[in-house]
Design goal:
There is one protein chain. By secondary structure, this protein is mainly α. The protein has one domain. The relative contact order is 0.28. About 5% of the residues have low confidence.
């Protein structure tokens, strides 16, 4: 898999974490660099680890489903993309009342925003793609976008939040279509 595709996947996957980071930036009264680093580290680490877990699960099943692997990858990426677009339209007003720096809440958010990365890791294993480089890139991109998201949230508020998730969803659907077309031609 080429580096451009991996970067697009990384950006698409990181949109959930970015949107939550923007929201977190809104809720933290006196934002410090350490707060932003803490949030970004959690999101980046989980986004890097979850594709590894998904890849290992998919690797063990690859021989059983190799004839339809491209359809599964297309389906998973499309479902994830559609889910992101759908969730972008929902209001998340109750998130303002929760402390985004609380360790338990941060763990919950990290897992919730990285479930999509688990499915992508599974898809990459079906396509026989090595996972280390994509996992590292996904983690770094998520870290950087989450870090910037906290500061954007602190400065600009909700203006970008839902638009970013829609863009991420469209990117993942586009990658799924690209995989399907490549395997059918």
């Amino acid at each position: 898999m080429d580096i451009i595709t991996v970067l697009f996947i990384a950006v698409g996957l990181s949109m959930d974490a970015f949107a939550v980071s923007v929201t977190s930036g809104l809720t933290i009264k006196r934002l410090r660099v350490g707060h932003a680093l803490r949030i970004a580290m959690f999101f980046g680490l989980f986004q890097a680890v979850m594709p590894l877990v998904g890849w290992l699960a998919g690797f063990s099943l690859r021989d059983f489903i190799s004839g339809v692997d491209h359809w599964i990858a297309f389906g998973l990426l499309s479902i994830i993309g559609i889910k992101m677009i759908y969730e972008a339209g929902r209001m998340k007003s109750d998130e303002k009342r929760i402390d985004p720096l609380n360790i338990y809440f941060l763990l919950l958010l990290s897992v919730a925003t990285s479930i999509d990365a688990l499915a992508v890791g599974f898809s990459l294993s079906l396509l026989n793609v090595s996972i280390i480089t994509p996992a590292v890139i996904i983690g770094i991109v998520t870290f950087l976008l989450s870090l910037s998201g906290v500061f954007i949230g602190d400065r600009l508020g909700h203006f970008f939040e839902s638009r970013i998730e829609v863009a991420g969803g469209l990117i993942l659907i586009g990658i799924g279509v690209k995989i399907l077309i490549e395997h059918l031609t």
